[in-house]
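[Automated response] Your request has been received and processed.

Submitted sequence:
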Amino acid sequence: MAGTRKSAEPSSPASEGSQRGLLIVGGGGHGRVVAEAAFLSGRFSRLLVVDPHAATGWTFTLCPCVAKETDVDARPAEWRFIAAVGDPALRRRLFNQFLQKGFAPANVLHPAAVISPSALIGRGVAVCAGAVVATLARVGEGVIVNHNAVVEHDSETADFAHLAPGSVLAGGARLGEGSFLGSNASIRHGKSVGSGIVIGNGAAVATDISKPGIYGGTPARLLKMTTLPREG
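Generated structure:
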């Protein structure tokens, strides 16, 4: 997990300055969840959603939404950002775009999440309410740890992966880059799921999986072959 080795550091809410605003890039359902978590964390001076598709008719009252950050003259010295969309390829693309604009990524850690001080958390990570990131877990860049998901001790979640609500990555297990672990799905202790793989809701991974595709069932089996998405 190159992103984690390069940029991760022990989790520490105090490590991110609370005097900067936060650009939440993405105004869909997940973006609103992230906005609420950021608000409740109290770690940012102001919040702004950036989404050209959501700006018109925006009704979420917790924070405003604009089509582009330039609409309000948001500058890197005053704002951090988080890419807040579910699709891993799009999340990676937005992450890289805002990095290139000079903005620094921020983590949004819900105050009702439990995060071990020994866990290694990459940049631009969202950890939602009820989630657990346990002892010596490693979480890469741009990862989503959704509501009530469990990232157990000594496990590894690679860059831009997504653990859906109620999913469990058991101790020493690995979820690969850009992969998705569905709601209430699990990966058994010490087992590995490779990159670009979708594990369906409620599935149980009992053996290593390396071939890209959609998997489901108990134990999880290949339902449909896919190809890794191209980066754009």
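Summary generated for your ticket: The first strand starts at residue 9 and ends at 10. The chain has three helices and 25 strands.
If you did not submit this request, please reply to this message.
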